[in-house]
Amino acid sequence: VQKIRRLFSGSKVVQEELRFIRADGSLLYGETIGAALYDAVGRLFAVTNVVRDITERKKREAQLLLMASVIEQSDSNIILTDSNGTIQYANTFFERTSGYCRDEILSFHLNTLFQEPKEENIPSIHNTFSQGSGWKGRIKGKRKNGSLYETDLTITPIHDPKGIITNFASFSRDVTRECEMEHYFRQVQKREALGTLAGGIAHEFNNIFGAIIGYTEIGLYKLPEGSRTHDNLKQVFAVCLRARDLIKQILAFSSQSDQERSIIRIHPILQEALNFFRATLPSTIAVRYECKTDKDFVKANSNEILQIVLNICNNASWAMKGKLGFLEILLEDNVPTAENGPQLRSLPPGPYLRLTIRDTGPGIDQKIIDRIFDPFFTTKEVGEGTGMGLAVVQGIVESLGGTTRVESTPGEGTAFRVYLPQSQGQDPIPIFPKPPLPEKGRILFVEDEVSLAEQGHQMLSRLGYDVVSQTSSLEALKEFQARPDYFDLVITDQTMPEMTGVMLARGILAVRPDIPIILSSEYCEGITAQEAEAAGIKALVIKPLILDVISRLIHSLLPKEAAGSAQWE
């Protein structure tokens, strides 16, 4: 009716799209064209109407709209070029990734948005268009601000019905974060491999220094006190103890398992870490370290302290590369207050240790200083850093109940201040070789390293014990089973090829439950004091064995009738 009215109002032709219902109930899209017919004097005498079925066309149009919507809403960068590579279209996501407005790049060639690969065996993007071939690979994209990002790029030629290339479609995805993850995990794997190697080397050194310590002690007991040779051997003994502690730290750092936290002094750990770090620094960087506290106790493990120090120092070294600079480290007591900064407001009240690591590098831009602890955030080039070092530092410090504060002035340098809760602790009693007290008793000594077995035999014999030594745990079990009442005490190594020390202890205790057993183990060998106690072992000692320590321990465990009447001073 409306159409007829329009026709009567003077319109001669009316074209519309209408929906019709067929006899079977299905929907039909039709294009209608209506015309008014007038006679010679201008009077309307008829109306004609033609209907054309456009249902298939409407379906195709809907599909094209859907495809256009998919392209616009895609989370990949999609670009369409002509056959020469000149950009004709870019989707919305590309604008967000690159920083360009699509109107800006319509006259660009596609290769201006990417950095051409430097490898000779990889074809250039420009050659892709000239040869009419496709391209697929990982390449660096260039944003409007000049920064680069890693992207997976695919370029596909589009052919017309005659097979002639009319366009190229480019699909790319920003994979910078994935690349950072890959690089980070490669670095983790490298560190694990180096840790395994370092652990193996440290294990061998531990055995070597164990023998040196043992034989040095034996020599000290045989020489008159005050003689030059005796004094020289005391110096050797002291240096070997320092080497033992250093090896313990290497074993801790190379360990793949989480270590238990205990109250430790961090001043010696800082000293050793900086000794390591100095060897990697260029001669243009000077290192200064000062400790202003004698209460440097925290509840942590040495590996965590090492990671804090080395990660911050590595960043400082990188900031000063190629320039003269100073790296200053200061450890001091501190009672943080809210006035010192917003990071300290959430700390529980109490005394803290403050570790300050300051460099004289270019400083940190204030625009990014709030992001430096974010995982994978880095200002280094791809391949130079993972962006995880400071994130690891923050994670460790917060897990220890502390916090980290950073202060930086562009052009003057950066200072990281690490606050750790101070703990109450005591220095270990210094170990000095003393003449052994006379002892009695029979000991089964099990050690698979021949040199350490011989050394242990001499040490224990020097104390007055009757010693049976074995380098095989299986033979040691047979020896004990043959005469279980002969022995008063057993000392066994933990890591042995045929049977571990714990397994040997269980076999011995199955025969005679009352016999005291001492287990000797290297640091981080996967056995704790609680696990040893659960297996029926009376004591766990860390190798290398120190004669003064082991003699006191044996004396405390031996039955009085076996130990004789000797008393400790």
Structure description:
This protein is α+β, with helices and mostly antiparallel strands and 569 residues long. The protein contains 15 helices and 21 strands. The chain has helices spanning 2-8, 55-73, 92-98, 125-131, 176-222, 228-254, 267-278, 302-319, 389-399, 450-462, 473-482, 501-511, 529-534, 547-557, 560-563, and strands at residues 13-21, 27-38, 44-53, 77-82, 87-90, 114-115, 135-142, 148-159, 165-174, 262-265, 285-291, 297-300, 325-334, 352-359, 403-409, 413-421, 442-446, 466-470, 489-493, 517-521, 539-542. The strands form 5 sheets. The chain has a 6-stranded antiparallel beta sheet, with helices on both faces. Helix 12 (501-511) links the parallel strand 19 and strand 20. Helix 7 crosses helix 8 (302-319) and helix 8 (302-319) packs antiparallel against helix 9. The longest helix has 47 residues, at 176-222. The model is unreliable at 562-569 (pLDDT under 50).
Task: Chart the SSEs and their pairings.
Elements: H1 2-8, E1 13-21, E2 27-38, E3 44-53, H2 55-73, E4 77-82, E5 87-90, H3 92-98, E6 114-115, H4 125-131, E7 135-142, E8 148-159, E9 165-174, H5 176-222, H6 228-254, E10 262-265, H7 267-278, E11 285-291, E12 297-300, H8 302-319, E13 325-334, E14 352-359, H9 389-399, E15 403-409, E16 413-421, E17 442-446, H10 450-462, E18 466-470, H11 473-482, E19 489-493, H12 501-511, E20 517-521, H13 529-534, E21 539-542, H14 547-557, H15 560-563
Parallel strand pairs: 11-13, 17-18, 17-19, 19-20, 20-21
Antiparallel strand pairs: 1-2, 2-3, 4-5, 4-9, 6-7, 7-8, 8-9, 10-12, 13-14, 14-16, 15-16
Helix pairs in contact: 5-6, 5-10, 7-8, 8-9, 11-12
